[in-house]
Design a protein that fits this description.
This protein is an alpha+beta fold and 794 residues long. It is 24% helix and 29% strand. Belongs to the Mediator complex subunit 16 family. InterPro entries: MED16_bridge, Mediator_Med16, Mediator_Med16_C, Mediator_Med16_N, WD40/YVTN_repeat-like_dom_sf, WD40_repeat_dom_sf, WD40_rpt.
Length: 794
């Protein structure tokens, strides 16, 4: 059931063998970033502790960014925001700090805000809800419509600004029973307030925070004794006269059932874990009571029940329209038998529920993405035991645990030890990949369960499902599905070349949209279609192989631009020209599937996009010849663009009808064979081999890694299919976003994508507005949507 994927350990210090302690708190973001804390002894004074926060991305676990947090006491809480780009930390002295990426790099962080409740330890912490909630409908997993599988749920933010925009901020609960709220104003200022949870303040040992659809906040709290009630409070946050206001209200409470059992009344004296099932589900809570030797877990649900009427009033004639009074009451749903002492409780990231209807659907479909599934962990004698509550099949669960001084990443079998047929397993993985596409969540943990033999079928099925969506949704997901396909194809050597094709397609789409955005209508009144749309329509209808005849049908005045923007974009234009030449020159070698570029030879829409850009570039070349792509021709009178456009059009005509593609005729193949003798064919610089761990953990052998030391690839087999993507030490390094050569040993600081490995310079060498606008598009994320990390100079 459980399998260690990799182990990453700290390097011991030779001076005094000091290493970080066992992590105290950890948190996992939706972007697959892990934050955890350790206490590190000072080398000069063993009594002084540094409270450290360490942040890694799961794809490059050795690249840890360690922060001396500056907290005076032990860090008690870590909490990621909904975007996975900011982190909250709170300590035993009541101090809360907000951390954000510096220059949008996952391995560079800084503190941007802080608040404090002096001397009052924080026991629970959460960001305010932004009002975005997506429901997952397992019962419709067989539907072809994404809108039926995943639907937007009406959910109000915790607090809104003018116009309904959600206000950002955080909420914390202290050990003395205070609730404190800090709001981030648009101007960067912090607005804070504190209020008691109830009139009679008492000690709070454990607490958790959830949200309701109406914009309210629910806090669950206990003093740590199983004989005491678990209290629930409604918290409302508002801003009145530029001041933060907090209103609290007591909700129905509950006593754990084990305390009413004469056999177990004194067996489990302490409540050790208290969690809402999800942050958007305040009506289902999980409780764990423990002793030194064992634990028991109970799950409760809040339900509406009719209030019994006294016998005196039962015979009274009912008034028209009168309804039975209702009350809210906690009811126990399930409980475990006696367990070994539970050390941790893990809940799946997906929306979960344990209602009877949901559990029946999970049983019928053999797919339960978190439905009624919780994991309880016990650690005894340095071994890990797992207890599951719920159905066996379903969600690909991923979790990790630590033992000083190591981090273990563990993969849990999707079937929890039971056999699933391949079609069922593919359907489950497809459903989760679709969910990641729609929500924007990172799909790294789903890839852990994809075997190389599944890649081709998953890519094909994902494309089929995507093509069944309406045109508007296809446009929204156009780049995200390409990024998912690229990630999948890297998992198998048979499809590795297609991964490069998908990354090239992402760059092609981005360049096309950027060049088209420069076009402006000649007259002020807004036409029915933009110049870019008219260009695409005319190029689709006009099948002429002569580029100049296609230009005649266009309004060339819409293409008139100043010289500087065109000249500054020359490196992007050059990439388009080189790419067209590379594809056509390799058309006769199409039988070799492993060759990069093969996927474009049957991709009608991408070939049509290249054809449109060739027309645009041709027109701009009349205005500014310096922006044209440069070709090295064997003849001085060779019109290279006309030749390439003619061959490209013939190839596009063979594949524009995707349902009935045609094979290129012999004449086209012969002309393409002659291209290397007419023009110097460039060697396209494809993306480097991904140095992350996802492509190395498909086997059953765990990786041994060390924090601070990059993982090096084992020696490649000379006959390996992956060899064509390798780089020699003397090869030029490429800026994959700016399409610039950086030299053999670049001196400029660079950053790389955590997902695809795309490399680009950290600082911009450009001064023109057009190129700066291109660079600003990728300041936060890569073309594929991955995050950036700073890499050392080679």
């Amino acid at each position: 059931i459980m399998e260690v994927v990799y182990v990453c350990e700290w390097e011991k210090r030779p001076k005094n063998n000091h290493c970080p302690s066992i992590p105290l708190v950890c948190a996992w973001s939706c972007r697959n970033l892990i934050a955890f804390t350790t206490d590190l002894k000072n080398e000069e004074d063993d009594k002084e502790l540094s409270h450290m926060i360490h942040i890694i991305d799961t794809e490059h676990p050795w690249d840890v960014y360690s922060i001396n947090s500056g907290h005076r006491e032990v860090i008690s809480c870590l909490e990621w925001d909904q975007s996975g780009s900011r982190l909250l930390s709170a300590d035993g002295d009541g101090e809360i700090k907000c951390w954000a990426m510096k220059e949008h790099l996952v391995n560079s962080w800084e503190s941007i805000q802080s608040s404090s409740v002096d001397g009052d330890p924080i026991v629970a912490l959460s960001w305010l809800h932004n009002g975005v909630k997506l429901a997952l409908h397992v019962e419709k997993s067989g539907s072809t419509n994404f809108g039926e599988k995943f639907s937007r749920v009406k959910f109000s933010p915790s607090l809104t600004l003018f116009g309904g925009k959600p206000m950002e901020g955080w909420l914390a609960v202290t050990v003395s029973g205070l609730v404190t709220v800090s709001l981030l104003k648009p101007n960067g200022a912090l607005l804070s307030a504190s209020e008691s949870l109830c009139r009679l303040r008492g000690r709070v040992a454990l607490a958790d925070i959830a949200f309701t659809g109406g914009g309210n906040i629910v806090v669950a709290a206990t003093d740590g004794s199983s004989s005491s009630p678990v209290q629930f409070y409604k918290v409302c946050v508002s801003v009145v006269n530029e001041k933060c206001r907090i209103d609290t209200e007591l909700l129905p409470s509950l006593f754990m059932r084990c305390t009413t059992d004469p056999v177990r009344r004194d067996k489990y004296p302490a409540v050790t874990h208290l969690k809402f099932l999800t942050r958007e589900n305040s009506e289902q809570v999980l409780l764990c009571a423990s002793s030194q030797m064992g634990s028991i877990v109970e799950c409760w649900s809040l339900r509406k029940e009719g209030l019994p009427v006294n016998n005196i009033f039962q015979h009274r004639s009912p008034v028209v329209g009168e309804k039975q009074p209702m009350i809210l009451k906690w009811r126990i749903l399930s409980a475990t038998n006696d367990l070994d002492r539970v050390s941790a409780v893990a809940l799946p990231k997906l929306p979960i529920s344990i209602s009877n209807t949901d559990l029946k659907v999970a049983s019928d479909t053999k797919f339960c993405p978190g439905l009624g599934k919780c994991f309880f962990f016990t650690v005894t004698n340095q071994s890990l035991q797992l207890f599951r509550k719920g159905f066996p099949q379903g969600l690909e669960v991923l979790f990790f645990f630590y033992s000083c001084p190591q981090l273990h990443m563990i993969r849990v079998s999707p079937s929890m030890g039971q056999m699933l047929d391949m079609n069922t397993l593919l359907r489950h993985l497809l459903f989760l990949l679709e969910y990641c596409m729609v929500t924007g969540y990172d799909w790294w943990d789903v890839l852990l369960h994809v075997q190389p033999g599944m890649v081709h079928n998953l890519v094909e099925k994902l494309h089929e499902e995507y093509m069944r969506q309406n045109q508007a949704l296809q446009q929204v997901l156009a780049t995200r599905i390409v990024a998912v396909k690229a990630s999948l194809c890297k998992l198998s050597s048979a499809t590795a070349a297609r991964a490069n094709d998908f990354h090239a397609k992402l760059l092609l789409i981005a360049i096309s949209s950027t060049l088209k955005s420069l076009l402006r209508p000649h007259v002020l009144n807004t036409p029915d279609k933009s110049p870019g749309d008219r260009l695409a329509e005319i190029c689709t209808k006009n099948t002429d192989t002569d580029i100049d005849k296609v230009m005649i049908n266009l309004k060339t005045e819409e293409f008139v631009l100043d010289g500087p923007p065109l000249q500054s974009l020359q490196q992007l234009i050059q990439w388009v020209g080189d790419f067209v030449l590379y594809l056509l020159a390799n058309l006769p070698n199409q039988g070799s599937i492993v060759r990069p570029g093969f996927g474009f030879l049957r991709d009608g829409p991408s070939l049509g996009m290249l054809r449109e850009m060739m027309v645009m570039i041709r027109i701009w070349g009349l205005l500014k010849p310096g922006c044209l792509p440069i070709y090295t021709a064997t003849s001085d009178n060779q019109d290279s663009m006309s030749l390439l456009f003619r061959l490209l059009t013939k190839l596009w005509l063979c594949s524009r009808d995707e349902s009935h593609p045609q094979e290129p005729d012999e004449t086209l193949l012969d002309e393409c064979c002659l291209l290397p003798s007419q023009l110097l064919v460039p060697s396209m610089d494809w993306l480097p081999i991904n140095d992350g761990v996802i492509t190395k953990i498909q086997s059953k052998h765990q990786l041994r890694l060390q924090f601070g030391k990059p993982y090096t690839l084992p020696g490649l087999n000379p006959n390996s299919q992956m060899e064509i993507f390798s780089r020699s030490p003397a090869s030029q390094r490429m800026d994959n976003l700016r399409c610039l050569h950086m030299g053999i040993c670049p001196t400029e600081e660079s950053k790389a994508c955590t997902r695809c490995g795309c490399v680009t310079m950290l600082r911009s060498p450009n001064k023109t507005n057009a190129m700066k606008q291109w660079e600003q598009r990728w300041i936060k994320n890569c073309l594929c949507g991955g995050l950036w990390r700073k890499i050392p100079n080679t």
